[in-house]
Design brief:
2 copies of one chain form a homodimer.
Chain A (H helix, E strand, L loop, with lengths): L1 E7 L3 H12 L3 E7 L3 H9 L5 E3 L2 H4 L5 E4 L6 H8 L8 E4 L5 H11 L6 E2 L1 E3 L20 E4 L7 H13 L3 E4 L2 H27 L4 H6 L3 H7 L6 H10 L1 H24 L2 H26 L1
Parallel strand pairs in A: 1-2, 1-4, 2-3, 4-5, 5-6, 8-9
Antiparallel strand pairs in A: 7-8
Helix pairs in contact in A: 4-5, 7-11
Family (chains A, B): Belongs to the prephenate/arogenate dehydrogenase family.
Protein name (chains A, B): prephenate dehydrogenase
Keywords (chains A, B): Amino-acid biosynthesis, Aromatic amino acid biosynthesis, NAD, Oxidoreductase, Tyrosine biosynthesis
Chain lengths: ~290, ~290
């Protein structure tokens, strides 16, 4: 049971955590924190938070659980604002989609990786944002990755695990490096491909006409290019090492594919496409059908 | 009014054309042609075709309209099988997603680009295939591109236009070269990116685990990697010139993006992502919402 939960950044991710814990009876008071007054007033009105402050230090006062749902680019300043205001029994966790940078930001601000920091990443979300888009079931049966370090206290880890279990999440522990590689592969790289594709086409001479002939598959394929550019700038900068490595793997494969196409080597193309289709059908449909 | 329509390849595309024309009362008899007896028996049972033959020459006998819905890689042999069996008033059209290769195949077989050939491409489809997946409304309000050449007879073009209008399609005339470039950009290239991404991940050491953490966005993004590998081999070989050019544009942009990420240049990243998001929101949603 969490006595007082502070949520820094009350949007889809933070708001849904609040709602889920509330529904589960797993939390006492919930204090919100953010910049936008309108969004926070809405959060109170919807019963997502009990009260709020625009000041991080004020918001986390007396909190035994702190959830950081700010963009990766705002993590460092958030840690800085927390310094000197943490309760003795406070545990800190977050929802950022890169983990090395969060831990690094903590080390920069506090001079060490705090033992009560349990960096984490719920693999969940929708296309919508803001507290009004939040809902209690967002984390139900979704994978929650936690990346404890050598410094992480067992008790802190146990409390964050209990929190996500109360939300219905399926918890996996993973090293920081491995998390960042896996996410670079399955999320960050695909976003780069979609942004890059749309941008390439947008820069072509007759781009108005080109987009006019795009069919439904193109729409699905490029949906993620409509994602928040600021968030993705932050992700790229935060996870640039793992993402850079993945980009380079991928570009090597694509260079080879381009050469295979130019040679008109049907046999090699069939082999590549068959292997990809099998992998996609086997892993993706198999895995996602069982959890979605 | 079409007196006798021959459909070579009775699947989603050919079957839907048959159904649409039947519903519109725009066709007399429909003769199917293909290799699979089971599929063709089903087509008769469903009333999609009136009868069928496994022999192309036999199937097109007396037909005043011939629709080729075979894979691009089978076009040349289909033209060869038609030689000597065409009625004097026959018009030939097709549904292939590359057009230069179809016209080239015709030239190779007949020694000239036939004046009664009107190469075409309905921008429509679903994830399903086979005659059982066909439905009369597939072409309703969908774009149908026709690519007449200097050799094409006006009357032949008019008859193919009338056929697609009866199906509810919106017809656009385009040069062969332009069609192949536009489709390389909006369809063939995205398929390459998806096949390449899934194949890159499938070849990584811990690929089982990596796919397990893929979220919903990844599923959408890679859906087209589950497409038919044989069809896509044929498309790549048939459209290798235009596709090769697009791949090279794209890979140049991605190389730059990779360098921008490695530099951690947030400002440049934000610019790229914002430009892509704007293009995607403006063109794709604007265009597709009005027609889908």
């Amino acid at each position: 049971m969490i006595r007082r939960l502070a949520i820094i950044g009350v949007g889809l991710i933070g708001g849904s955590l609040a709602r889920a814990l509330r529904n589960a009876g797993a939390v006492g008071e919930i204090v919100g924190c953010g910049r936008g007054k309108e969004n926070l007033d809405k959060a109170v009105e919807l019963g997502v938070v009990d009260r709020y402050s625009h000041d991080v230090g004020e918001a986390i006062r007396g909190a035994d659980m702190i959830f950081l749902a700010v963009p990766l680019g705002a993590m460092r300043e958030t840690f800085a604002a927390m310094k000197g205001h943490l309760s003795a029994d406070a545990v800190i966790t977050d929802g950022g989609s890169a983990k090395f940078s969060v831990i690094d930001d903590c080390r920069e601000v506090f001079g060490e990786v705090l033992s009560n920091l349990v960096a984490g990443h719920p693999i969940a979300g929708t296309e919508n944002s803001g507290v009004e888009a939040s809902f209690a079931e967002l984390y139900q049966n979704r994978r929650i990755i936690l990346t404890p370090t050598a410094e992480t206290a067992d008790d802190a880890l146990a409390r964050v695990q209990a929190m996500w279990q109360a939300c219905g999440g399926e918890i996996t522990l993973m090293s920081v490096e491995h998390h960042d590689e896996v996410l670079a592969a399955t999320s960050h790289l695909p976003h780069m491909l979609a942004f890059g594709l749309v941008d390439t086409l947008a820069q072509m001479k007759e781009n108005d006409e080109i987009f006019r002939y795009a069919a439904g598959g193109f729409r699905d394929f490029t949906r993620i290019a409509s994602s928040n550019p600021v968030m993705w700038r932050d992700v790229c900068v935060a996870n640039r090492r793992a993402l850079g490595k993945m980009m380079s793997h991928y570009l090597n494969e694509m260079q080879e594919l381009a050469q295979t196409i130019e040679r008109g080597d049907g046999e090699a193309l069939l082999e590549i496409f068959t292997r990809a289709k099998q992998a996609r059908d086997r892993y993706i449909d198999g895995v996602l059908d069982s959890t979605e």
